[in-house]
Amino acid sequence: MTHAVLPETETRSEPGWLRRNKLAIAPWIFLIPALIFFAIYVVIPIFESLWLSLYQWNGLYDAEGNSTAVWVGFQNYVKLWDDPNFWTSLRNNIAWLVLYMLAVPLGLFIALFLNQTVTGMRFYKSMFFFPFVISQVVVGLIFGWFYNPDFGVVGTVWKAMFCEETTNILGNTTFICERPVPDILSSEQWATYGIIAAGLWPQIAYCMILYLTGLNNVAADQIEAARLDGAKGWKMLWYVVVPQLKPATFIAVVVTVIGALRSFDMIAIMTQGGPFGSTNVLSHYMFEVAISEYGERYGYGSSVATVLFGIMLFFISYFLWRMYQDEKGGR
Amino acid sequence: MFPRPIEKSGTTAKAAYQAFLPVALIMWLLPLLAIFLTSIRSAADINSGNVFGWPSEFALIANYTAVFTQSAAAQYMINSVLITVPTVIISVALACLAGYALAIYRFRVALPLFFLFVAGNFIPFQILMVPVRDMSVQTGLYDTIAGQFLFHAAFQTGFCTLFMRNFIKALPFDLVESARIEGVAEWRIFWYVVLPLVRPAIAALAVLIFTFVWNDFFWANVLTQGESAKPITAGVRALNGQFVNNWHLVSAASLLAAIPPVVCFFLMQRHFIAGLTLGAVK
Question: For B44-92, what is each residue's pLDDT tens digit?
């Protein structure tokens, strides 16, 4: 069989350098395409952005092809400190982070509700997961319409409850309302919460599917043992089931934190940061600053991106540290 | 099993549970159902405020045709396919190679490199935005299909490598070991031993990356300008501006944009969920 070839390779008097170091070189050959690609589009741009945040630049080049960026040191950050829009965005980011976390327990709740084996359960599980599959742009449009006071669901329900329809002599119908129909997305106070609620919809679905998989793998004997000891309901959930769901919870928290800080699509679709910047978050504010109708402000935008990156790095470090602990323990 | 199987609680409880399921589902998908109903209504219904009621006439075909004839929706859809498919191929191929290297070989920087790919996958897009946009403008890739799929492929390589490396690491290492003893070349081990075994991972990644990239909106805005290279997500936003308050058309366009990932999900459900829940169990 293959042994027939072996002697020849072994008896070669001078095995080449390549052959001797085969196991040291091979990984790099496999890695190089991915590394180069990843370096060009991800690793290097991170450092370029950090560096650019110390410049003022409108993105233009002079006739010789040199960048027109001007070094300003930390001035962009000083400007950021005095920028009320930046603080609004940061505050909204915190609101997103905190409220988005609701997706984790709510996802668990729905997973517990659906963790049965009656006929048709597979269909129900996939339908409950549905909102996660569709684009956030579409979710944003759906909820934008849902909240619309004139045409949407909220408006219609409100009118049915609090308004009286009247028809004037010209045949036009108007509504006389006890309380005006709420226009959630035009309210500086409520718009952010409206968007977060819309964002929760797909996120809950994601957490739910993580927990459904986790519940599938909960050790049955432990549940039975606890049941014999008289544990049930909340106590069983909290002391027996939830500890076993720890890996699922970890991933649910990771994706929810990342999702909350990355929220951009829905804001861009539903309010574009308005009214008066009240729904901006750092990710959207950065985009708005860097590419706006008033010309590009790449340096200032980069400083906003750097702050967001710093916040994210805090979480990423923690996640990587946890993964490192697993790697050490695992093998 | 937790919670206790409903069968054990008697027939009434089971019947009640089964009766409640569809109600819960309708409540959960209410926004989606409402927008579907809207997409098959006529303009007259929208203006008279008929949101929940039975449509006075069905305009399913009329509305969906209108989206295609009155806008560049067809172009946007084609663009989305042209961006998504190469992204999937490139990123999965690169990740098979890189994941193999990081899982099979023991070398000092294997773990740091692995963490680099993982971390890259979590960073905010905004930190990449200005340099990537500038680079695309400089190289003539701005506002092109290639400019978008090259970026997406590079970025998604991070996630794919994370996934592949963990998948290959879980394979029995003896297979590789014994192939080496037999004197099989490293690339042949990769091609003939490992690659056939990672087929489920390739399927899972293909559906996930397809969905992620299809649904991308941010980079579509950063890297394109006109109609020629815009994918459907950014296109739907443009349509939203064009069809102001023509909610029946906006809804139809939104649902059209959602169809490919949905079809993909239902066809490859098992792989899709296996991919998303990787690591959710020990």
Answer: 777 776 666 777 778 888 888 888 888 888 999 999 999 999 999 999 9
ipTM of the complex: 0.91
Tell whether B282 is covered by a domain: no
Residues B55, B123, single domain; the answer is: no
Inter-residue contact B54 to B41 (CB < 8 Å): no
Partner-chain residue, chosen from A3, A41, A201, that has the shortest CB–CB distance to B155: A41
Q: Which residues of B touch A38 (CB under 8 A)?
A: 116-117, 120, 154, 157-158
Q: Which residue of A has its CA nearest to B105?
A: A27
Handedness of CA B276, A40, A316, A273 (dihedral sign): negative
Q: Do A151 and B49 touch (CB under 8 A)?
A: yes
Q: Over the stretch A7-48, which tens digit does the pLDDT of each residue have?
A: 444 444 456 777 777 778 889 999 999 999 999 999 999 999
Cα pseudo-dihedral B249, B253, B259, B260, rounded to 10: 160
For A201-241, what is each residue's pLDDT tens digit?
999 999 999 999 999 888 888 888 888 888 878 888 888 88
| Domain span including residue B104 | 70-276
- Beta strands A173-177 and A70-71, pairing class: unpaired
Burial class (CB within 10 angstroms; exposed 0-12, middle 13-18, buried 19+) of A288: buried
Supply the pLDDT for residue A106.
Answer: 97
Chain B residues lying within 8 Å of A31, measured CB to CB:
97-98, 101-102, 113
Does the beta-carbon distance from B3 to A286 stay under 8 Å?
no
Q: Chain B: residue nearest A253 by CA?
A: B280
The enclosing domain of B159 has a CATH number of 1.10.3720.10
Q: What is the pLDDT of residues A104-159, one digit of tens each?
A: 999 999 999 999 888 888 899 999 998 999 999 989 988 988 888 877 778 878 88
Kindly identify which residue of chain B lies nearest to residue A221, measuring between CA atoms. Answer: B1
Q: Count other C-beta atoms under 10 Å from residue B226's C-beta.
A: 8
Mark whether B121 and B13 lie in a shared domain: no
Residue B165 lies in a domain: yes
Which residue in the set B97, B131, B269 is minimally distant from A48, CB to CB?
A: B131
* CA pair distance B258, A288, nearest whole angstrom: 26
Domains identified in chain B, total number: 2
- For residues B25 and B154, membership in a common domain is answered with no
Q: Is B141 within a domain?
A: yes
Tell me the residues of chain B between 53 and 92 that have a Cβ less than 8 Å away from chain A: none
Handedness of CA B59, B60, B63, B66 (dihedral sign): negative
pLDDT at B164: 93
Residue B211 lies in a domain: yes
How many angstroms away from the CA of B72 is the closest CA of chain A? 17
Compare A290 and B281 and report the one with higher pLDDT. Answer: A290
Name the residue facing A137 among B101, B190, B236 (closest C-beta): B236
